[in-house]
Specification:
By secondary structure, the protein is an alpha/beta fold. The chain is built from nine helices and seven strands; from the N terminus they run βαβααβαβαβααβααβ.
Amino acid sequence: MSHLRPILITGANGGIGSGLVTYLKARGYENIVCQYHREDNKLRELFGAEFNRHCFRADLTKESELDGLHQHVLDFFGQIYAVINLAGASTSAMSWKLPVEEFQQVMNANLLTTFLTCRKFIPELRSQGVGRIINTSSIVAHKGVAGAAHYCAAKAAITGFTKAIALELANKNITANVLALGYFNCGLIEELAEVTQEVIKNATPVKRLGRVEDIGGLVEYLLSDEGSFMTGQVHHLNGGLYL
């Protein structure tokens, strides 16, 4: 039953996003809606002739474009069952050199997009009396990392936001949880030099980077009926790098 319910994945053309879409499609999830911001070929390859039905381009910091995404979902899939917020971005700069505009851009790309997307879809989740929200944080929200104070702050704020909405929505059978991701073999890590990636891998107790399958299994549980008692939790997927 849960495999047929419509699922929205934001940031679906990123490395982790497209990997999760691939994983869920292979597991029989048929009604996946993908938000993407910048054009590339990953989603076109995944959906082929069905691309325009399953994928919608939108800037999630703009409410008018979120309205368009919402209408697209309603037109093609009906009311949503789950929202998985993967959209995000970062830059690198020491905090005392960080321009206000750059700080705000990273906060918007991570926190504001999560807030606006949840706000847009929560009313229909409440009206149907069931739903799932999965928001994405990061290991850096708990450990910190030099040169990314804005990203650390945004991801920490997503955790607080998710805990609050978990309490707000619990009486409507809607769960809200956080994925606090460590370092994976796709996504933002691709911007790091190979030598830096090796340092991270060697510092990780399991001695490898994460794989999308590691995320997919947990996501599938959180989407399931069996996951209905799990809410307001931070799920640390980091290979033991943060305990």
